[in-house]
UniProtKB/TrEMBL annotation:
<feature type="compositionally biased region" description="Low complexity">
    <location>
        <begin position="312"/>
        <end position="324"/>
    </location>
</feature>
<dbReference type="InterPro" id="IPR055342">
    <property type="entry name" value="MreC_beta-barrel_core"/>
</dbReference>
<comment type="function">
    <text>Involved in formation and maintenance of cell shape.</text>
</comment>
<dbReference type="GO" id="GO:0008360">
    <property type="term" value="P:regulation of cell shape"/>
</dbReference>
<comment type="similarity">
    <text>Belongs to the MreC family.</text>
</comment>
<feature type="domain" description="Rod shape-determining protein MreC beta-barrel core">
    <location>
        <begin position="123"/>
        <end position="283"/>
    </location>
</feature>
<dbReference type="InterPro" id="IPR042177">
    <property type="entry name" value="Cell/Rod_1"/>
</dbReference>
<feature type="coiled-coil region">
    <location>
        <begin position="78"/>
        <end position="112"/>
    </location>
</feature>
<keyword id="KW-0175">Coiled coil</keyword>
<dbReference type="InterPro" id="IPR042175">
    <property type="entry name" value="Cell/Rod_MreC_2"/>
</dbReference>
<feature type="region of interest" description="Disordered">
    <location>
        <begin position="292"/>
        <end position="330"/>
    </location>
</feature>
<keyword id="KW-0133">Cell shape</keyword>
<dbReference type="GO" id="GO:0005886">
    <property type="term" value="C:plasma membrane"/>
</dbReference>
<dbReference type="InterPro" id="IPR007221">
    <property type="entry name" value="MreC"/>
</dbReference>
<protein>
    <recommendedName>
        <fullName>Cell shape-determining protein MreC</fullName>
    </recommendedName>
</protein>
<dbReference type="Pfam" id="PF04085">
    <property type="entry name" value="MreC"/>
</dbReference>
Amino acid sequence: MSFFGNKRLIIVLVGLVLLISVVGYTSRERVNLTWPEMFFKDTFSVVQGLFYRPAQAVSGFFREIEDAYSVYEENKALKAGLDQYARLTAELHDLKAENERLRKELDAKNRLKSSYSLLFAEVVARNPDTWNNVITIDLGLKSGIKKDMAVITAKGMIGRVQSVANFSATVELLTSYERRDHISADIQATYIVDGKTVHEPVSGVIEEYDPQERLLVMRKIPWGKKIEPKQQVITSGRGGVVPRNLPIGYIVRVVPDDYGLTQTAYIQPSADFSQLSEVMVVERDFTISPNGELIPKQAAGQVQPPATGGKAATPNSTGTSSATTGGGGQ
């Protein structure tokens, strides 16, 4: 037993010596490899190549899928960002436009508040079939709206209240093709006499709207009055329904009528009838009695004397009233 045990020990020692010799020999710098090294190296290279290429292909396939998914998610996020940017841009433009409209309406209210009371309303309906005729606002009898009240924007008059419900009202526009009520108006004419500028209102009646030229037509202007383009036209208040001094538009041109007795003026409206979102209803400072007389509103504690002679008291822009006879214009 000791012999075989010693024999095994001798074999192990010889093996270790050979292994150390081989390691020492192969670890030194050499120009060429031995044939066993080349054999084993080539064998392992072939085997490694057989497994490495498919593994790289599979790994590359899954990596490309992952990259494609990442690109898809990034593209989706960018599209969502662009959609949100477009929405925010549209909202910003809408808010800017609304802010500009409200500023103009506030400015108009400040200009007119000394003469009239204004009720702000929003346009809630506008039928494409009657686009130039009527609009519907969100104020009615419960808010103090009455028939024939004037309706304006920050730029000028657009029409009058045609009919009223409890919580809404229909406004007939100045551009209505079917409008039968005339509006009494004044042209703010300016003359130079002896080097001095003279302002003289020239009266007339706005009777219709020309849809081809998109201009209001003002007739019954006295012959001989010098009317020039760009002169402003305002309501006169002589009709007893529409208050005075509400801007209507500007003169474009003046022509003689068919008989050469009066003049006819074509007026560019001040208001933009294509963009009506917020409007103002002019609250009149007078009431209409059952017999058709105009009675100015009085402060609390004041007594209104009865009207005589079939004449109605027409309020002017300073709050006072003057007696006028009834007329067909507004």
